[in-house]
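Please go through this protein, sequence plus C-alpha cells, and consider how the sequence yields the C-alpha cells. Keep your notes short.
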Amino acid sequence: MRNRFLLLIFLMLCIPMSFAEKADHDKPIDIDADRADVDDARQISTFTGNVVVTQGTMVIRGDKMVVTQDKDGFKHGTAYGHPASYRQKREGLDEYVEGYGERIEYDTRADTVDFYVQARVKRAQDEVRGEHVTYNSKTDIFQADDKGAEKGVPKRVHAVLYPKPKPASGVDAAPVVEKK
C-alpha cells in the first residue's frame, strides 16, 4: 500500500499537468461495430465485432463494448478485447495517452478510464503497468494497483519514468502539484 502511494505521489510530481482534450466532451460518441443490440427500455447497448468508439480525439477499440446510460444522460462503456485499446490526445500538446487491457471501462460522468488485466498505460515515454490502472482525464493522474489480479495472488505494479528535458533557460521548472 505504501509503495502504491509513493508511486502515485512520484507520478504527480514528475509529470507536468496537461489534460485530455477538453473539446472531446462536447463531441458525440460514434460507435462502429459488426453488430449492435439496443435495449432502449433498460438503456443498454451491446456492440460486437471490431468495435471502434470515437469521441473527438478519443478512440477505444475492442471485440465487444457494452454501453449503459444513467438517468442524467451520462454513459458508461465497458470494452473487452485481447487486448482492448484506448487513445486520447492531451490538451495543448502534440501527445497522446494510450492504454491497453483485457477490459477497459470508460465513465463519462467521472472522466475516468479503468484498464483491467495486464493493464498498461503510456504517456509520452512514461509507462505504468499493473492488473488495474485508472486514468483520470480531468486531473491527468494515474493510479495502479492489483484489483484485477486473481484472488490470493498479489501482483506488483511497475512504472518506467523518463527524466523530462530541462527548459532552454537552464533553470529547472518546479512541478505543478494541485492541492485538494
About this structure: The beta strands are 30-32, 35-39, 44-55, 58-69, 75-89, 96-107, 112-123, 126-136, 141-145, 158-160.
